[in-house]
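Researcher: Let's do a round of design. I'm pasting the structure tokens now; please hold your answer until I've finished.
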């Protein structure tokens, strides 16, 4: 049995969704399919919270738009009147509950983390029901099961929950496995689970990938397939490097590093559950289902060079906390990090010297992080510097630490491109070398490195570096 995840990028437009259903009818029988919300619906649900908070008169229009969007798709996909009416009844029940939640939000005058999670989870519920009824109309047996009904148990953290695999597996044996059959497609909404106390808790934006990995691990699936609108992981962003090539096989470590850089293929946490069970992940393109795609397993295939990809992100901001004798002052790093955490901000990475602590944050958190540190009293620093014009680049591949000369070739390529490098990190990850460059030099840098490790090596017919073990 396989677990298949269908992302929101694939559930965009009536014709595209119809193609997805064609694929599911052929490849989905006997499998469990974890689905995202239809494209754009989660954003509509979240925007609806703000509108409901401003004025309860906005709520009927919010509900009407959600109903119309789903019924427009349903009328195209569900030709059978009885099935279409059955979906309409299910949708109406869910929308009635959602409407009450919006009114409750307006009454309390607060968008609490609990309320945000339960409202934002409705998109996946709508999607799973829609696809199940549409597939049944095509003559395929299909059912959908909601995560909080089948016992996908989480630790209860709103907005960033973690699944409790052992408890979830126990509940799945009772509530999910009995409906899995060779002639049946089972849909499960992604993105959320339920705490032991019964609260809906989400896994964060893009968390349906993680949901699918949890379902695969809890069911001991043979494999996890992620259906996307791309072929798989590439040697670079094709929008920046037109000659980027497909990576056919990656290790869990390599995929985790590339996901961290927002490669738009996997949610960064997807690797966690399946790695423990050694379940392979296959990336498949729904528009080109016969293309090989990328496969992620325990071991990376040996290649002629250690570098698999040149990844990057511009979603980065840096807070430089300048202070004398940082390395000799007990507790200063903890003090700074705790204040950032108290502000609800995630620290992506930390680089320290004797005179400066550099905190890497998401771009949107830079100002809030700066304000949080300014409230420290007494101030353990001399000044704080904000840097918002940097891009983070990584060369990714298992074996980087074993291959001599990798860093030298990388930085030589960057130097020849006349780009200055800042804040190098090499060693904490066995599969990645990180560094920062000015944002306006990003494309130049990525192309210079990609040319060095891919095009030049191919042209010269070089095998793997001589010192690789």
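Researcher: That's everything. Go ahead.
Model: Designed sequence:
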């Amino acid at each position: 049995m396989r677990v298949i995840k269908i992302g929101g990028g694939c559930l965009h437009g009536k014709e595209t969704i119809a193609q997805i259903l064609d694929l599911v009818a052929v490849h989905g029988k006997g499998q469990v399919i974890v689905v995202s919300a239809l494209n754009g619906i989660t954003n509509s649900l979240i925007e609806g919270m703000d509108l409901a908070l401003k004025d309860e008169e906005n709520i009927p229009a919010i509900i009407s738009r959600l109903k119309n969007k789903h019924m427009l798709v349903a009328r195209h996909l569900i030709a059978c009147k009885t099935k279409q009416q059955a979906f309409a009844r299910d949708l109406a029940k869910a929308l009635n509950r959602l409407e009450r939640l919006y009114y409750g939000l307006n009454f309390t005058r607060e968008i609490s983390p609990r309320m945000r999670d339960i409202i934002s989870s409705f998109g996946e519920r709508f999607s799973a029901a829609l696809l199940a009824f549409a597939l049944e109309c095509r003559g395929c047996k299909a059912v959908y099961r909601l995560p909080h009904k089948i016992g996908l148990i989480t630790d209860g953290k709103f907005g960033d929950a973690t699944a409790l695999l052992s408890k979830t597996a126990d509940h799945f044996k009772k509530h999910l496995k009995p409906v899995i059959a060779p002639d049946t497609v089972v849909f499960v909404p992604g993105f959320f689970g339920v705490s032991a106390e019964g609260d809906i808790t989400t896994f964060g934006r893009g968390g349906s990938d993680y949901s699918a990995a949890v379902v695969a691990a809890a069911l001991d699936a043979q494999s996890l397939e992620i259906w996307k609108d791309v072929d798989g992981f590439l040697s670079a962003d094709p929008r920046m490097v037109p000659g980027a090539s497909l990576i056919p096989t990656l290790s869990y470590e390599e995929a985790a590093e590339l996901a961290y850089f927002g490669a738009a293929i996997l949610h960064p946490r997807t690797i966690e559950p399946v790695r423990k069970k050694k379940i392979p992940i296959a990336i498949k393109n729904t528009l080109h289902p016969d293309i090989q795609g990328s496969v992620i397993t325990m071991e990376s295939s040996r290649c002629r060079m250690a570098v698999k990809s040149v990844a990057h992100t511009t979603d980065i901001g840096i807070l430089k906390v300048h202070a004398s004798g940082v390395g000799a002052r007990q507790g200063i790093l903890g003090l700074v990090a705790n204040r950032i955490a108290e502000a609800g901000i995630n620290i992506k990475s930390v680089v320290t010297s004797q005179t400066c602590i550099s905190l890497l944050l998401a771009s949107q958190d830079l100002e809030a992080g700066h304000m949080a540190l300014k409230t420290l009293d007494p101030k353990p620093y001399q000044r704080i510097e904000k840097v918002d014009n940097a891009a983070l680049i990584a060369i990714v591949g298992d074996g980087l630490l074993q291959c001599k000369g990798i860093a030298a070739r990388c930085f030589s390529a960057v130097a020849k491109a006349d780009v200055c490098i800042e804040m190098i990190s090499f060693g904490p990850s066995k599969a990645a070398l990180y560094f920062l460059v000015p944002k306006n030099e990003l494309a130049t840098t990525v192309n210079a490195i990609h040319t060095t490790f891919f095009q030049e090596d191919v042209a010269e017919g070089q095998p793997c570096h001589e010192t690789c073990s």
